[in-house]
Design goal:
Elements lengths: L17 E2 L14 E2 L4 H17 L2 H5 L17 E4 L15 E2 L4 E2 L5 E6 L4 E6 L10 H4 L13 E4 L3 H13 L25 E4 L4 H19 L1 H4 L5 H9 L6 E4 L19 E8 L2 E8 L4 E7 L10 E5 L6 E3 L4 H9 L1
Antiparallel strand pairs: 1-2, 3-9, 4-5, 6-7, 6-8, 10-13, 11-12, 11-14, 12-13, 14-15
Helix pairs in contact: 1-5, 5-7
């Protein structure tokens, strides 16, 4: 046995198994796809550097909470901006920065925060108490307090879960020379006291290199699981191997809204949106991998450039937690071609 990522061949370093789909996203009946061709060191590295990031700091990761796939610990997201959305439930607290508790699948208690509207960017900026030191609000960008003629008025507010935290944040602003004066308080939304109630949230994030590496790792694992260990040890997979393990190079990727299984849903066979879809195929002279979480956008990546699989090696699977993996059929060429043209 040789590790498909680092080429380690010491039998003592292959005690565990690597899950094709990270275990955080569930298991799939008695045939949960696993690999024995990933060494323990690579397995541990991926779990720490890629799998945890995908499971906790991406839209794919936090979307699993509503499907019963919970985290082992509750901690705020650092790479995502999660804010209360506009709505009757949120009232004046719309835009408040929040975090999601992965253990309970609910919002965590909010932190006190200062909001200032930047007229140049048209964006509302959020600052926590530890970010106040050194903060300045130039009038040309943020306006100023008061109602003097010709002056753009501040659009600022302090949101806090308690009066004590509110007052401490106001004091920090004033000590920094920002003349914030509290106005009339507005009540917390009623949603806060209703157990089990729901509230709209807006989630923003970036699909950056670590995120793409985490997705590419699943596609590499899927190739090893479906095409075989010997196939992915071939030199043509070296770019993908180095990209996943070392972050070397730039992978070509895109998001698309094209249906993942064109023409394969029927009245008798409806796909739920709680599944993860993966396929590998030939497309435009390259070997392309595609992955979709929960019916959302599909991420397509060029895994091997200027090469092709044998037609019978093109393959796709649907993974639904608690169910056996379902093998999909190759997409119909005419539908694929028309979608690509559009």
């Amino acid at each position: 046995m040789k590790c498909i990522y680092c080429s380690d061949d010491d039998p003592a370093r292959f005690r565990g198994v690597e899950h094709v789909v990270p275990q955080s996203f569930g298991t799939f009946g008695a045939n949960t796809p696993t690999l024995t061709c990933v060494c323990d060191d690579c397995n541990a590295y991926f779990g720490r550097e890629l799998d945890q990031l995908l499971a906790r700091e991406t839209l794919e990761g936090i979307s699993r909470y509503t499907r019963g796939q919970r985290s082992r610990e509750a901690r705020p997201q650092r790479r995502l901006s999660i804010t209360l959305g506009e709505g009757q439930e949120t009232g004046a607290f719309a835009g408040m920065r929040v975090a999601i508790d992965g253990v309970a699948g609910a919002l965590m208690p909010p932190r006190a925060q200062f909001h200032a509207f930047n007229f140049e960017t048209g964006e509302n900026e959020v600052y926590f108490r530890e970010q106040i030191a050194g903060l300045t609000l130039p009038e040309i960008r943020y306006g100023g307090p008061g109602t003097a003629e010709g002056r753009r008025r501040w659009q600022v507010k302090v949101l806090a879960p308690s009066k004590e935290e509110h007052d401490a944040l106001v004091a920090a602003l004033q000590s920094q020379g920002i003349p914030f004066e509290p106005g009339e308080p507005f009540p917390a939304p009623s949603i806060a006291v209703k157990a089990g109630a729901t509230v709209p949230v807006d989630i923003e994030g970036e699909i950056d290199t670590p995120h793409k590496r985490a997705l590419a790792k699943i596609l590499m694992n899927f190739a090893a699981w479906t095409l075989g260990h010997d196939e992915v040890l071939k030199p043509r997979w070296n770019f993908l191997r180095r990209y996943v393990r070392e972050g070397e190079g730039l992978i070509k990727a895109r998001l698309t809204q094209r249906p993942f299984w064109n023409g394969q849903e029927t009245e008798d066979r409806r796909f739920a949106d709680d599944s993860i879809d993966i396929r590998i195929e030939n497309h435009d002279g390259n070997i392309v991998g595609a992955i979709q979480f929960y019916g959302r956008s599909t991420c397509e990546m060029i895994l091997v450039e200027n090469d092709a699989l044998l037609p019978e090696a093109e393959i796709g699977y649907r993974f639904t937690p608690g169910s056996e993996p379902i093998r999909g059929e190759k997409r119909r060429t005419e539908l694929d071609s028309s979608s690509a043209t559009e």
